[in-house]
């Protein structure tokens, strides 16, 4: 059975259900959702490009930032935990860089949190060289007293969200089926209203937006298991004041299918990616309450440049005078990097200055 048919059957048997639950099934239903089924997701043969799919630069620069973090943690045992490693390209590029530091590499354990057996098998192929360094787990709770860094790259934008629309009162979007998928609106529960109130958001009439409750739960869970170290979150999004600005009347939801973009989640159900922009304020404030200190917030472009991107490119040009650098990929990466943001938080250290945060944006 296709996932679209399963969703239709569920609506027929139970009635309309929240967009959150629709998105969860479309993306993550075991073996049939977009991210749990076979098939390429990224790159030329996939539906979209990610920064790691455009070359190894992001992995190298993240590796440099991780190396600095290891020094700040007194060069002791170091754990890297990556959420949703995709095809494993970022992990491969990070470990290729860190392997040059023998002491760090010997102290290192790399965990990948991945629930999809299909994705694990794909990751194992590209990460064969580093197999002895990597452990695959399904939950961060499987690790106790983490010292190191918890990393996510383009993960939170795929968390299932609640869609709301302001009418006479705040309404939540539910999904029904009448020969096609249709929206049904119901009064929003208090938890969704309280979310907007916490960020002092007042939605105009007919304003549609997404609420990602799962992201708050995610950062709280991380804070409870991180003993000492850092959290690097890379994704596209904004602080709450900018994300919920009145100019975004239709929200931020986008779908990616065969390198085309649309805003209809009811197309190609189970065959297209569904994404929304991240509310970085919703990571900052719950994190602070759970003991995570703010290190900085910037664009991925500034992050890369602060860590020495220009010097690295010049070095490559000197080593490859015949022009083996894929400048088109570099240009695409930098265009993408201006849209992505990087948030770094830490726990268990005094205030630290990180090389990647030399040009911070306002988030507090």
Structural write-up:
With 364 residues, the chain is of the alpha/beta class. The protein has one domain (3-348): Rossmann fold (3-Layer(aba) Sandwich). 35% of the residues lie in helices and 25% in strands. The protein has 13 helices and 16 strands. Strands 2, 3, 4, 5, 10, 14, 15 and 16 form an eight-stranded mixed beta sheet that branches. Strand 6 and strand 7 (170-177) form a beta hairpin.
* Number of discrete helical segments: 13
Task: Give the helices and strands as they follow along the chain.
Answer: HEHHEHHEHEEEEEHEHEHEEEEHEHHHE
End-to-end separation in angstroms reads 47 Å
Average the pLDDT over all residues and give the rounded result: 92
Q: Total domains, how many?
A: 1
Strand fraction: 15-25%
| Helix amount | 25-40%
Overall CATH class: Alpha Beta
- Backbone structural class: alpha/beta
Q: Please provide the count of β strands.
A: 16
Q: Which CATH-level-2 architecture?
A: 3-Layer(aba) Sandwich
- The rough form would be described as globular
How would you briefly describe this protein structure?
By secondary structure, the chain is of the alpha/beta class.
Annotation keywords:
single chain; 364 residues; alpha/beta; Rossmann fold; eight-stranded mixed β-sheet; five-stranded antiparallel β-sheet; 13 helices; 16 strands; 25% strand; globular
Write the layout of secondary structure elements.
Elements: H1 3-14, E1 17-18, H2 19-28, H3 57-72, E2 78-83, H4 89-98, H5 102-107, E3 108-113, H6 117-126, E4 134-137, E5 146-153, E6 162-166, E7 170-177, E8 181-187, H7 190-198, E9 208-211, H8 213-225, E10 226-238, H9 240-243, E11 254-257, E12 260-262, E13 273-275, E14 278-279, H10 281-289, E15 293-299, H11 300-306, H12 309-319, H13 327-337, E16 340-347
Parallel strand pairs: 2-3, 2-5, 3-4, 5-10, 10-14
Antiparallel strand pairs: 1-7, 6-7, 6-9, 7-8, 10-16, 11-12, 11-13, 15-16
Helix pairs in contact: 3-4, 8-10, 11-13
């Amino acid at each position: 059975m296709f996932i679209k048919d399963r969703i239709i059957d569920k609506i027929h048997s139970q009635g309309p259900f929240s967009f959150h639950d629709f998105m969860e099934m479309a993306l993550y239903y075991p073996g049939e959702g977009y991210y749990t089924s076979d098939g390429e997701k990224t790159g030329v043969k996939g539906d979209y490009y990610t920064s790691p799919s455009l070359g190894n630069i992001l992995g190298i620069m993240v590796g440099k930032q991780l190396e600095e973090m290891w020094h700040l943690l007194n060069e002791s045992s170091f754990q890297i935990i990556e959420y949703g490693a995709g095809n494993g390209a970022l992990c491969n590029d990070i470990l290729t860089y860190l392997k040059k530091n023998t002491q760090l590499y010997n102290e290192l354990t790399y965990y990948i949190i991945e629930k999809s057996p299909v994705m694990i098998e794909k990751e194992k192929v590209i990460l064969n060289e580093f197999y002895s360094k990597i452990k695959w787990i399904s939950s961060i709770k499987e690790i106790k007293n983490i010292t190191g860094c918890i990393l996510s790259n383009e993960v939170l934008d795929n968390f299932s969200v609640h869609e709301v629309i302001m009418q006479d009162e705040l309404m939540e979007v539910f999904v029904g089926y009448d020969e096609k998928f249709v929206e049904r609106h119901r009064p929003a529960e208090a938890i969704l209203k309280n979310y907007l109130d916490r960020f002092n958001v007042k939605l105009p009439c007919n304003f549609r937006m997404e609420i990602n409750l799962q992201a708050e739960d995610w950062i709280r869970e991380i804070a409870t298991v991180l003993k000492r170290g850092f959290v690097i979150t890379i994704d596209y999004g904004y602080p709450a004041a900018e994300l919920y600005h009145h100019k975004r009347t239709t929200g931020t939801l986008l779908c990616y299918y065969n390198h085309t973009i649309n805003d209809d989640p009811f197309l190609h159900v189970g065959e297209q990616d569904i994404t929304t922009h991240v509310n970085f304020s919703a990571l900052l404030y719950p994190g602070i309450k759970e003991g995570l200190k703010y290190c900085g917030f910037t664009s991925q472009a500034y992050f890369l440049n602060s860590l020495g991107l220009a010097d690295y490119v010049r070095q490559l040009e000197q080593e490859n005078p015949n022009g083996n650098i894929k400048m088109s990929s570099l240009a695409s990466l930098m265009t993408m990097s201006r849209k992505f943001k990087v948030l770094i938080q830490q726990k268990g250290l005094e205030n630290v200055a990180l090389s990647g945060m030399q040009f911070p944006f306002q988030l507090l």
